[in-house]
């Protein structure tokens, strides 16, 4: 059994051995295959390592807990060779804080989703720029890891910045140049290699009256005839070509200066400027020169001009006449010395002892440093010439000859007139002084100096009025009044306004003065001694004051007497009324007539006393009015009815016309009634035959009452006095003879704010117009 067991065991061993051989062979083959794969992977790893080393971007793995895995060389370039954690990249030499913070935010976003990172960061220590790109790391990296690819872009970034800056500058310059060309006020264009227009500016489009630059280029519209001719010559000569051509611009014929400039690329640029104004100016200059020549021929002064070589280049007709030289001889352009010699032959030079030396001195004017030489030439025949020599910048000389013979004669005559004037001024009774516009004493007479006791030598220095004021003040009663004299001179010279007044001197004399502006801007100051007239005026003033005082005394006396007369008159009237009423018994027929006469006289005398009182009160301004509505038409009718019997008694026609616009006014009924009665009473009293008319009219503002008569009228010298108190003219009796009516009428009417106007013609009658305002004053 043992044998069988052993045999089975051997069989099993053989079976296992037979089975192990293929397994061993398989394992040997698998090991060899893995060894080859390992060698291949190592080769791939070396290749990938070499590629990574040569790649512009290098990787950095950042785990979810911010651990970093990167090459030491990359960490050194990032300024953090010892960094193990992401935060270590931001120390003093590492990444800029703002870049690290922005990158940290993007890492957090990329770790949570499919976000991509793209950023440029800067190393603080070296200033180098690195471009960072990346996203979530692929397996087998832990979830939340981020794989970054970091590339050094400093050189590229600087190159790109420089290129961008150059491009921007170029674009800006090109844009500015384009804007400049487009905004140029004159046409500009560019022609291509075929010499056709390729580019035009706005001024070109406007000049040819096209709608757009594209239209001009498409249609080939030329600015002037022969447009490409200059461009062809410019390309052939290789230089700018300038030409002048006529053109029609905006419907107007203009002259253009056209310039074509060849460009290196075979194109031709051009521009055109409008020289029409220049051509006009050139023509205007030529006409101006010709007009100046014509003007110089019409001048009274002679003029000649010499070139630097001393030959005559210009002369005018007055010079030929003054020098008595034929124009044909002057047209041959003689030399300076020859001209002087010819003038000497014609006796048109002054007589001198050494003519060659004198001529040499005048020849020296050509090179003289002085700007102007001026001389007075007195000729043998008595003519007086003023000669002005002006050296010219080019070495020439201009001479101007002015014939002053007539001026010298006039000056002599003026000197004679001045002497006559001085003699006349010195013998005037008035003191006369003339002050210039600057306040200086320009002219005076002897009496002016005597009035103020001024020294003649000091006055000859022509002092200013400010200097004269202290001298004036010492002679015046009121020294401060001297300042007024200064103000008078200023007013007359500056404001051109005259004034007058009086001055009192300390010695008792009085002067009337006047300051008058003169046409030449000066001021005339005159003084007249009015001492005697002042004394007479003072005496007349005292007499007038005495008369006024007497008038006031008379007025007060009349007023007082009127009051005193009123008391007995009242008693007489009262007793007469009692007698008339039968208190003392029945009266006989003659006694009643006597009492009636007494009452009528009392009434008349009372009215006269009232008028006198009103007149004296009005003279003092004490008139008091009662304001009420007055029916003017009714008032006029009432007054007319009361006056009609008196008019009929004198066989006068009495006509009353009440106008529609009469209306009513605000005023004192009694005063207005008395005013009308006074005027009517005067008209009836002074009219012996004919008629008396009373007419009323009015408008919304005023009412008018016209009273006219056919009496004898008043002489013109009497018409101004009819309104004076106690004045009468002609032979009249009753109240009119006292001269109270018209003065009282004017007084009452003016108190109402109205006016009284009288007009009279001797032999034809008198009319009085009363105007009253509607409202109260």
TrEMBL record:
InterPro entries: HATPase_C_sf, HATPase_dom, His_kinase_dom, HisK_dim/P_dom, HisK_dim/P_sf, PAS-like_dom_sf, Sensor_HK_Regulatory, Sig_transdc_His_kin-like_C. It comes from the Bacteria. Its EC number is 2.7.13.3. Pfam families: HATPase_c, HisKA, PAS_7. It catalyses: ATP + protein L-histidine = ADP + protein N-phospho-L-histidine. It is an enzyme of class 2 (transferase). Residues 560-776 form the Histidine kinase domain. The chain crosses the membrane at residues 7-29. This is histidine kinase. It comes from Sphingomonas rosea. The lineage of its organism: Bacteria, Pseudomonadati, Pseudomonadota, Alphaproteobacteria, Sphingomonadales.
């Amino acid at each position: 059994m043992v044998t069988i067991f052993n045999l089975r065991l051997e069989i099993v061993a053989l079976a296992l051995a037979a089975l192990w051989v293929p397994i061993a062979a398989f394992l040997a083959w698998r090991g060899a295959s893995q060894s080859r794969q390992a060698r291949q992977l190592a080769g791939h790893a070396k290749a990938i390592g070499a590629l990574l080393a040569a790649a512009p971007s290098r990787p950095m793995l950042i785990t979810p807990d911010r651990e970093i895995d990167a090459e030491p060389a990359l960490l050194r370039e990032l300024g953090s060779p010892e960094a193990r954690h992401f935060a270590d990249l931001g120390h003093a030499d590492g990444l800029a804080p703002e870049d690290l913070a922005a990158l940290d935010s993007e890492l957090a976003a990329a770790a949570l989703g499919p976000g991509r990172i793209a950023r440029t960061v800067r190393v603080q220590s070296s200033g180098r720029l690195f471009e960072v790109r990346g996203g979530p790391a692929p397996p087998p990296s832990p979830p939340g890891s981020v794989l970054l690819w970091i590339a050094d872009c400093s050189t590229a970034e600087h190159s790109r910045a420089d290129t961008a800056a150059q491009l921007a500058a170029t674009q800006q310059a090109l844009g500015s140049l384009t804007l400049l060309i487009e905004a140029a006020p004159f046409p500009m264009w560019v022609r291509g290699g075929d010499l056709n227009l390729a580019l035009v500016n706005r001024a070109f489009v406007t000049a040819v009256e096209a709608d757009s630059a594209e239209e001009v280029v498409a249609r080939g519209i030329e600015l002037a005839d022969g447009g490409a001719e200059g461009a062809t010559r410019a390309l052939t000569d290789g230089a700018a070509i300038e030409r002048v051509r006529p053109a029609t611009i905006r419907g107007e014929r203009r002259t253009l200066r056209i310039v074509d400039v060849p460009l290196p690329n075979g194109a031709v640029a051009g521009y055109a400027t409008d020289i029409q104004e220049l051509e006009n100016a050139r023509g205007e200059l030529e006409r101006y020169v010709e007009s100046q020549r014509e003007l110089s021929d019409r001048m009274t002064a002679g003029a000649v001009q010499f070139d630097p070589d001393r030959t005559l280049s210009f002369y005018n007709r007055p010079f030929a006449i003054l020098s008595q030289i034929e124009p044909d001889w002057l047209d041959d352009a003689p030399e300076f010395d020859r001209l002087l010699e010819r003038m000497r032959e014609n006796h048109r030079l002054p007589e001198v002892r050494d003519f060659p030396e004198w001529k040499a001195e005048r020849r020296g004017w050509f090179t003289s440093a002085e700007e102007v030489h001026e001389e007075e030439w007195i000729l043998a025949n008595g003519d007086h010439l003023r000669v002005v020599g002006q050296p010219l910048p080019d070495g020439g000389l201009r001479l101007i000859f002015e014939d002053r013979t007539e001026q010298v004669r006039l000056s002599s005559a003026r000197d004679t007139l001045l002497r006559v004037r001085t003699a006349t001024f010195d013998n005037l009774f008035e003191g006369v002084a003339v002050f210039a516009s600057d306040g200086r004493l320009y002219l005076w007479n002897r009496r002016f100096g005597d009035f103020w006791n001024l020294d003649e030598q000091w006055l000859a220095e022509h002092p200013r009025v400010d200097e004269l004021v202290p001298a004036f003040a010492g002679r015046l009663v009121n020294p401060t009044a001297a300042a007024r004299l200064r103000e008078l001179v200023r007013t007359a010279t500056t404001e051109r306004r005259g004034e007058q007044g009086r001055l009192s001197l300390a010695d008792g004399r009085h002067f009337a003065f006047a300051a008058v502006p003169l046409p030449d801007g000066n001021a005339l100051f005159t003084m007249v001694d009015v001492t005697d007239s002042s004394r007479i005026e003072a005496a007349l003033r005292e007499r007038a004051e005495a008369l006024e005082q007497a008038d006031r005394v008379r007025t007060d006396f009349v007023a007082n007497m009127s009051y005193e007369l009123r008391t007995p008159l009242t008693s007489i009237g009262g007793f007469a009324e009692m007698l008339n009423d039968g208190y003392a018994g029945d009266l006989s027929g003659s006694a009643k007539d006597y009492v009636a006469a007494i009452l009528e006289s009392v009434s008349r005398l009372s009215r006269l006393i009232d008028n006198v009182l009103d007149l004296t009160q009005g003279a003092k301004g004490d008139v008091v009015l009662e304001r009420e509505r007055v029916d003017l038409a009714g008032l006029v009718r009432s007054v007319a009815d009361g006056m009609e019997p008196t008019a009929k008694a004198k066989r006068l026609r009495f006509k009353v016309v009440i106008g529609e616009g009469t209306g009513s006014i605000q005023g004192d009924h009694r005063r207005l009634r008395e005013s009308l009665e006074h005027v009517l009473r005067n008209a009836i009293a002074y009219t012996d035959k004919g008629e008396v008319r009373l007419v009323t009219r009015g408008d919304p503002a005023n009412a008018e009452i016209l009273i006219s008569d056919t009496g004898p009228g008043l002489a013109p010298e009497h018409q101004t006095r009819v309104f004076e108190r106690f004045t009468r003219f002609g032979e009249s009796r009753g109240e009119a003879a006292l001269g109270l009516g018209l003065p009282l009428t004017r007084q009452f009417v003016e108190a109402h704010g109205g006016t009284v106007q009288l007009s009279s013609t001797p032999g034809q009658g008198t009319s009085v117009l009363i105007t009253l305002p509607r409202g109260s004053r």
